């Protein structure tokens, strides 16, 4: 009699346990979600991000998805799961996967010299021609300089990709190929051109047919010229301590490295494909895994972090994290995955800001039951804060000099100041004054070159306050020069 009763009790306990466990799991998830939403709203307020879209996948399912803020601030259009964002450099993983697909088909080898496919791409280091392999382009060890991003030509023409790659012929390599890591976005534009040469079709067509369609990523576009949707978010960047809507030039030649456009509905599918939760017959699981294999022939680019084929891979607390950030002039993104738990997080934002990466990392930490690290204002926000302060200072001096100039002109009109004869002292003062103003203007114009860029690049990629500062310095310098010139060339009239 005891045995049947005991069996009934055990069965009842098992049923109770399994009916109670989902409640616990649900409560834990709800607790995490509340923390995540509070965290995002706090960081969005600090960063001034107009809108962002978040998706979390786990074990093949979308466990959380939500839009925050606005796709367009003026019309108050809310961000939804359908809202489209430029991905920036998280686009590189599509290009990297395409290269591996072509290798599997026997159409190229990653050990090949890139000149096998682009014969005219003859790059030099210290005036010596160099051999650059497909692998070195994938791993950012080609020797191509980070600063070549400033040379990408504005173009929406069909040959824009080739025009972009040809720009590399004007620049020497920054190091010997294969010697060390140096992130350069143009590495992946070269790979995009290789894909065109090998597949004998446009890059965007190959990506659509070989990756997007098999993965059912129907709302993902390869390049802005492909967009046929009203769901595209407006792009913003910081300027004078607030969001500023901005439309940057079109860089069609940079599509393989940074201009895939998507939403979190499709990115959920992309993350699940990467995590092995979404099996696609035409995309070999082994190729996906191979795209996560890192290059250990060079030093890590960060602590315990090496580069793979469009992904960074980090070993942390006995766990592997696969991640990448994306940044365009008015959009940012961040993808991070933890393969052991088949867990992935993606954040898409319609502003150029370093906060998107920090938010993505924070969400991953919170979902794993950790505390989100404190986020410090940095990148564009810190730069904008400094530049805004300089703008206020320079404009303040400009107003002061303008008032003094008007007073000086008034004195001349009223004959209270008259023309002074030039003597050695006044000539010397005129020379020094001219030299000071010329130096200020020269330094202002040349400043981006000292940083490895140019003013066009700074205008497109930097906060809008940089442009304001540039013109403020020019105008204030001219006013200051005229003020000084009048004081040197005139004197008080005798009464």
From TrEMBL:
It is found in: Membrane. Its main location: membrane. It comes from the Bacteria. Keywords: Hydrolase, Membrane, Transmembrane, Transmembrane helix. Pfam families: Beta-lactamase. Signal peptide: none annotated. The chain crosses the membrane at residues 386-406, 427-448, 468-489. InterPro entries: AmpC-like, Beta-lactam-related, Beta-lactam/transpept-like. One of its GO terms (molecular function) is hydrolase activity. This is Serine hydrolase. It comes from Lysinibacillus pakistanensis.
